[in-house]
């Protein structure tokens, strides 16, 4: 029987997305990449209108690799039969959810709807959006959705900066500065996630002109702050100029330091 994988995206594709596509091709015979800039996951005053849309280039990148599914808003959210709104619950109010109220309800609602439209056996997501990946895992477990959720490690620039569709908003000066973000995360991760390393890292970013939204070490499943380095992640969101960047790294367990 044909096994179908979905890779949900908002387009403006880069090598991070392509890593997901290549992983999907290992897992399934049919790979569908959805491209949909989902209005319900953007808050008022966020960058929905200016979010990069590069459909022609995206199609070229995916040519011969995957089917491209570009649904319309009416197809995803038919007004006569609207899809159920999925609430992310308390875990969706932490971190990015605190900064972006309703964001994860929008994400889960669209992912659930895309699952319904494409009917995949497996779905591939990036670890870059750790909270998103965690919430999607919780959603499929709680709702008994028979789809395997696969996470793919973050693809980075040679500078260490995580690839992101939003990196194109950074000017050359900001792009250079942005490389400090993974440096700070790595220091925290390699220190085992000590509170001193977090405080030092936040100060360094502040000095460099970042507006740090959050920087902490959390349990990678519950997303609650932790001082235990086992199964922990250092997570960050910070603004540089008008661009909000997020990233995370696994904290090195004691045995590996
Ligand atoms: P988006 O960029 O929001 O369209 O993300 C679509 C998918 O690509 C999500 O599962 C993201 O986590 C994933 N993704 C985005 N950037 C990266 C990256 N640098 N490395 C790996 N996956 C990524």
What overall form do the CA principal axes indicate? globular
Total helical elements: 9
How many DSSP E strands?
Answer: 8
Give the H and E element order: EHEHEHHHEHEHHHEEE
Number of domains as seen in the coordinates: 2
What does this structure look like?
The chain contains 9 helices and 8 strands. The protein has 257 residues and is α/β, with parallel strands linked by helices. The strands form 2 sheets. It has a 5-stranded parallel β-sheet, sandwiched between helices. Strands 6-7-8 form a 3-stranded antiparallel β-sheet. Helix 8 packs antiparallel against helix 9. The longest helix is centred in the middle third of the chain and has 16 residues. The mean pLDDT is 97. Adenosine monophosphate binds next to helix 1 and strand 4.
Task: Name a few traits of the molecule.
single chain; 257 residues; alpha/beta; Rossmann fold; Pantoate--beta-alanine Ligase, Chain: A,domain 2; 5-stranded parallel β-sheet; 3-stranded antiparallel β-sheet; 9 helices; 8 strands; 35% helix; globular; binds adenosine monophosphate
Short description, anyone?
The protein has 257 residues and is α/β, with parallel strands linked by helices. Helix content is 35%, strand content 20%.
Sequence-ordered SSE layout with sheet pairings:
Elements: E1 4-9, H1 15-27, E2 30-35, H2 55-62, E3 67-69, H3 73-76, H4 95-99, H5 103-118, E4 122-126, H6 130-142, E5 148-152, H7 172-178, H8 180-190, H9 195-207, E6 211-219, E7 232-240, E8 243-250
Parallel strand pairs: 1-2, 1-4, 2-3, 4-5
Antiparallel strand pairs: 6-7, 7-8
The structure holds adenosine monophosphate (AMP).
Adenosine monophosphate binds next to helix 1 and strand 4.
């Amino acid at each position: 029987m044909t096994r179908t994988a979905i890779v949900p995206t908002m387009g403006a594709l880069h090598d991070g997305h392509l890593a997901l596509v290549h992983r999907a091709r290992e897992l399934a015979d049919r790979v569908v990449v959805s491209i949909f800039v989902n209005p319900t996951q953007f808050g008022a005053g966020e960058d929905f209108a200016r979010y990069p849309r590069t459909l022609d280039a995206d199609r070229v990148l995916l040519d011969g690799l995957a089917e491209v599914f570009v649904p319309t808003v009416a197809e995803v959210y038919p007004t006569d039969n609207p899809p159920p709104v999925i609430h992310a619950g308390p875990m969706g109010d932490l971190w990015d959810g605190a900064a972006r109220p309703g964001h994860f309800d929008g994400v889960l609602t669209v992912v659930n709807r895309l699952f319904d439209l494409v009917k995949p056996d497996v779905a591939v997501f990036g670890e870059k959006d750790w909270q998103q990946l965690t919430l999607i895992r919780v959603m499929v477990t709680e709702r008994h959705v028979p789809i395997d959720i696969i996470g793919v490690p973050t693809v980075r620039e040679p500078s260490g900066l995580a690839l992101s569709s939003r990196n194109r908003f950074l000017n050359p000066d900001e792009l250079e500065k942005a490389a400090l973000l993974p440096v700070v995360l790595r220091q925290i991760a390699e220190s085992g996630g000590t509170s001193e390393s977090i405080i030092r890292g936040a100060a360094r970013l502040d000095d460099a002109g970042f507006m740090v939204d959050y920087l902490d070490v959390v349990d990678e499943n519950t997303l609650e702050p932790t001082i235990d380095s086992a199964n922990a992640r250092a997570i960050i969101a910070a603004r540089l100029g008008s661009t909000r960047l997020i990233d995370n790294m696994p904290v090195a367990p004691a045995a590996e330091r």
